[in-house]
Amino acid sequence: MYSNVDSLINKKHELETTLNSLNTKPQIIALTEINYKNKDFNYDICELNIPGYVIYHNIQNKDERGVAIYVSSDLESIFLKSASSGPEFVFIKVELHKGHYVTLGNIYRSPNSTQEVDIKLCKELECIVNEVKKDLIIVGDFNFPEIDWDLHHSINNSVGSTAFLNTLQKLLLLQHVNFPTRARGSDTPHTLDLVITDSQSINNIASLAPLGKSDHSTLIIETNFLSNDSPAEQKYNYNKGDYTSLRSYVDSDWDKEFAVVDFEIEAIWNILYTKIDDGMKQFIPITSRFHSTKWKRPLKEEIRQQIRL
Q1: 219-252 tens-digit pLDDT
Q2: Residue 20 and residue 218 in contact, taking contact as beta carbons nearer than 8 Å
């Protein structure tokens, strides 16, 4: 789950209500713009805690806008690094299964970012990709309204957005959000909040209403590895089928059977399908195949490195 909350303290109750309304509580919650814009507002960091979650954040003196990642206390997690200024971020590692880690990042880029900050953002992306190698998910508010994500093109060719797009391409990173995530009044809606990965690890992204008076959508992100379940698929074991018995079973007087339905095409198909299906169930054993939740790269790492060069 991800959202730009535009100050969390006054929306924390609504966040917890939203969590309780979901059929399945998210294992990970990433939030940006935790702090108030009014820097005079004071609070204790403990007020950010959510029961059942461990929090990682970049908040030092509350002058930053603030980013945080909440991890279910059922999961083992490790802090990697954070930054409290241009751009703000938190990176952590989460152990989903024994020995299988996923790296998670949450980034906030101010809409007033300078060219220097944008270059720093691109370098940080390069750094984290080189460090973790695989199984990476980055979310956040990147504030690039000028990017057309259908075309992967910067409409105004700004230095920052062009460099960002080039970096994603260079690092073979994928951006998965294809709908506007921020809208206010009569302003043109834009896709500011992004979900970036190094693999096809996103199954679905659903958009919920903003929290409180925030103008950013809440995103529910479903991945193919943030789960402890490995569903078993039932399939026929064709190598051990009794095909002699199957051929004998389907050896029928088909003209006679088809005449019963006056040779109507769909009815003929149903008779054939039912006969073959029943025969397979009787003479071909069923086995279970377990899906591995660990994604395997279609390209070897050395080939990917050559592409990046």
Answers
A1: 999 998 755 444 445 678 888 889 999 999 999 8
A2: no
User: How is the chain split into domains, by residue range?
Assistant: 2-223, 232-290
- Tell which residue, 252, 286, 244, has the closest CA to residue 272: 252
Beta strands in the chain, from DSSP E residues, in sequence order: 2-4, 28-32, 53-57, 67-72, 76-83, 88-97, 100-108, 136-141, 147-148, 153-154, 174-175, 193-197, 202-208, 218-223, 232-236, 286-290
Strand 28-32 to 67-72 pairing: antiparallel
pTM of the model: 0.73
Alpha helices in 171-299 (DSSP H): 243-250, 254-259, 265-283
Q: Is the dihedral of CA 17, 38, 217, 220 positive or negative?
A: negative
Residues 214, 6 contacting (CB under 8 angstroms): yes
Region 292-298 average pLDDT = 44
Give yes or no for a contact between 70 and 111, defined as CB atoms under 8 angstroms apart. no
The C-alpha atoms of residue 19 and residue 27 are separated, in whole angstroms, by 11
Helix, strand and coil percent figures for the chain, each rounded to 5: 30, 30, 40
Structure tokens given for 44? 């204790």
Phi, psi of 104 (to 5 degrees): -120, 135
Instruction: Please tell me whether residue 149 adopts helix, strand or coil conformation.
Output: coil
- Burial of 224 from C-beta contacts in 10 A (0-12 / 13-18 / 19+): middle
From residue 24, alpha-carbon distances to 53, 177, 229 in Å are 14, 21, 13
CB 16 within 8 A of CB 216: no
One of 3.30.930.10, 3.90.550.10, 3.60.10.10, 3.20.20.30 is the CATH number of 2-223, namely 3.60.10.10
- Reduced to 3 states (helix: H, G, I; strand: E, B; else coil), residue 227 is coil
243-250 and 265-283 are packed helices; what angle lies between their axes, rounded to 10 degrees? 150
Q: In what helix (H) or strand (E) does residue 166 lie, and over which residues does it extend?
A: helix 159-170
Query: What's the residue count for the chain?
Result: 309
